[in-house]
From TrEMBL:
GO cellular component: plasma membrane
Identification of the protein by name: Mannose permease IIC component
Cross-referenced InterPro entries: GatZ_KbaZ_carbometab, PTS_IIC_man
Biological source species: Clostridium paraputrificum
Biological process according to GO: phosphoenolpyruvate-dependent sugar phosphotransferase system
Keyword Ubl conjugation in annotation: no
Annotated transmembrane regions: 96-118, 139-160, 180-200, 207-235
Membrane topology type: Multi-pass membrane protein
Amino acid sequence: MLLKAILLGLVGVVAVIDSRLIGRQNIGRPLILSTLAGLVLGDVKMGVMLGASLELISMGFVSIGAAGPPNMQLGSIIATAFAIISGASTETALTIAIPVAIVGEFMSIIMRMIIAQFSHIADKAIEHENYRRAKNIHIYWSFIFNAFVYFVPIFLTVYFGTDLVKDMVNMIPEVITNGLTVAGNLLSALGFAMLLSTMLSKKMFPYFLFGFLVVAYSGLDLIGLTLFAVILAYIMDKVSFSKKEATS
């Protein structure tokens, strides 16, 4: 379990690399992180299933000003580990992910407050024309601190909390488990509804309705629907580009 706890902590570091070191490449999304966590724990299928559900939940989360959404990166990794280690259902793991993500965001706020102090040290380095030190503070100090804040909670939760998690799951009454199952199913719908509330407009609604009808009545599987959507988007992009060229 020690090795698995370390590897899961490193999966958390992957999320930090995505946003802090190589730019936003979206490898820190719940779908990717849960899949990696499932790979570490030997159950990729559960990792993908949880990641897809958590991705739906987090699609509607948006950072506005100083108000940050729940930290779904921590929530995804810990919830996936919880589900695979304890044998809990996907729905139960989803309901665990949200509280963990909220606590994770609280930790992230404290982390950002501390990292903000690094800028003062960098300012002093620049005043003394020590630009290399200022660069290292900006790039490496903040990354290492971020990685530490992600790695430690994940490692401690997985390494020390395994038996505790199993005992807690076994103690949960069936009526509560059924309630968690219902709540878990609702969370995915809630996340998708939050996303639609921000993007649905008079211009976009016909496309949404068209997509709904295709999914409902075409009988295509997920891969077929995806390929159909990609081809349609490509055609529409070409038509739109041709119209712009014609008007210009």
